[in-house]
């Protein structure tokens, strides 16, 4: 069976009123945009390295964002005792298996739910210490939006190289 990434609906509509709701909406839109860039591609296409010498792939971005979500929301902010999702430091980009693309995709969407749950009852002003600096949940939301936006730009270029599809 050759799995294909499904089509994705991105959240649309009026901006909510509160800062927290607005940050969540922007994060959810960026999250969905990454999957939107992958829609209709097979596991093999998602794992394709299209811009040598870079090893960047869409599947690598899916795996990387899974790691980033877990690290910031669950390990650092909520202090959950969870292991690194892929083990080795560079395994998110370096150990790609097109046959596992469906599982990696599902792992990302599951990590979103777990990350959201880790932050659900916290204030944006709640803090944690990382590398000697006190950071807030607000910082995580802003950092995650920036992280997705940057990588979605990469994803756009990779997708265009794979099959010519472009767009926001």
CATH superfamily, please? Answer: dinb family like domain
Assign a percent range to the helix content: 55-70%
CATH level-3 fold name: Four Helix Bundle (Hemerythrin (Met), subunit A)
- Overall mean confidence score, pLDDT: 93
**CATH class value:** Mainly Alpha
Biggest β-sheet, characterized?
Answer: 2 strands, antiparallel
What is the name of the CATH architecture? Up-down Bundle
Outline type = globular
Give me the side-by-side strand order of the main sheet.
Answer: 1-2
Q: Could you state the oligomeric state of the chains shown?
A: single chain
| Count of alpha and pi helical runs | 6
| Overall number of domains | 1
- Beta-strand share of residues: under 5%
Could you characterize the architecture of this molecule?
The protein is mainly alpha-helical and 168 residues long. The protein has one domain (19-163): Four Helix Bundle (Hemerythrin (Met), subunit A). It has 6 helices and 2 strands. The protein has helices at residues 19-38, 43-46, 58-77, 91-94, 101-119, 137-163, and strands at residues 127-130, 133-136. A two-stranded antiparallel sheet has the order 1-2. Helix 3 (58-77) packs antiparallel against helix 6. The longest helix has 27 residues, at 137-163. It starts with 18 loop residues before the first helix and ends in a 5-residue tail after the last helix. 32% of the residues are buried. The mean pLDDT is 93.
């Amino acid at each position: 069976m050759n799995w294909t990434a499904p089509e994705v609906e991105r959240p649309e509509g009026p901006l909510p009123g509160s800062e927290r709701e607005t940050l969540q909406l922007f994060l959810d839109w960026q999250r969905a945009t990454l999957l939107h860039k992958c829609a209709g591609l097979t596991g093999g296409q998602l794992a394709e390295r299209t811009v040598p010498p870079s090893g960047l792939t869409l599947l690598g971005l899916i795996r990387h964002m899974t790691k980033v979500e877990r690290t910031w929301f669950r390990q650092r902010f909520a202090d959950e005792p969870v292991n690194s999702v892929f083990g080795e430091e560079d395994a998110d980009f370096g150990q790609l298996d097109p046959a596992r693309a469906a599982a990696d995709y599902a792992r990302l969407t599951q990590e979103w739910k777990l990350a959201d749950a880790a932050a659900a009852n916290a204030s944006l002003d709640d803090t944690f210490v990382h590398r000697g600096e006190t950071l807030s949940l607000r910082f995580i939301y802003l950092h995650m939006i920036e992280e997705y936006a940057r990588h979605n730009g990469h994803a756009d270029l990779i997708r265009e190289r794979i099959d010519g599809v472009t767009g926001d």
